[in-house]
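User: I'm designing a mutation panel for Hydrolase, TatD family and want to avoid disrupting the core. Could you give me a predicted structure to guide residue selection? Please restate the sequence first so the numbering is unambiguous.

Assistant: Good idea. Sequence first, for numbering, then the predicted structure tokens:
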Amino acid sequence: MRLVDTHCHLNLIEERNEIIKKFDNENMEFVIEVGIDIDNSFNTVELANTYEKIYASVGIHPNDSSNLSNKDFDTIKILASNEKVIAIGEIGLDYYREYTTKKDQYKSFINQLEIAKEIGLPVILHIREAYEDAFNLLVENGIPDKLGVVHCFSSDWKTARKFLDLGFYIGIDGPITFKNNHKLVEVVKNTPIEMILPETDSPFLTPVPYRGKRNNPLYVKYVIEKIAEIKEISIDETSEILLNNAKKAFSIK
């Protein structure tokens, strides 16, 4: 089984160097280190430039969208010119916690969508309890040609189908392994496997059998195994399809 993790935060893990050293032995093809604010986006690029098997995305998370200036968006655009940067993200809307106003989130989301469209990169969408508004903003403001992924999808099949109809991939994380997560199982069952991307969101959302402990990209294998089980496809075939999906979604050769 060859592994790929299309969404992780190694910079938030103290023992990241030890984890990265295991990539070759664990058949990790590559991971995508995802930015969440300006400083962290600088760090994602630095990490990607240091390690061959790490790519980066740069972006400002909706929870960090307060008090942003044009300089901040210009910085994201400059960082995105690095050859190891393959996406803008994670960007979007998050209504779960009121860290920022909806107005600030809309401004940040729209500005970064414009960056993605201008420089021709896909987007990594963070959407939490805001799927309808995020969908409408995408439709109203124009979708990047390279599309992207709805990261850590957590809604129902009806919602997933709307984003699939736009052309977006669906990101599946550790919660797919949680007991009684019937809604997400239905999403995976109905979504064409060619439109699914495996993620960990590490150090968060650790899958079974390590739930409750700190997550890392190597645990993506449990997500892949669960997808294979739901799809009734062999683990090896599933891992190859998902790897090819990741390469296609983010134009990685």
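For picking mutation sites, this is relevant: The mean pLDDT is 97. Strands lie at 3-8, 28-34, 54-58, 85-94, 123-128, 148-151, 169-172, 196-198.
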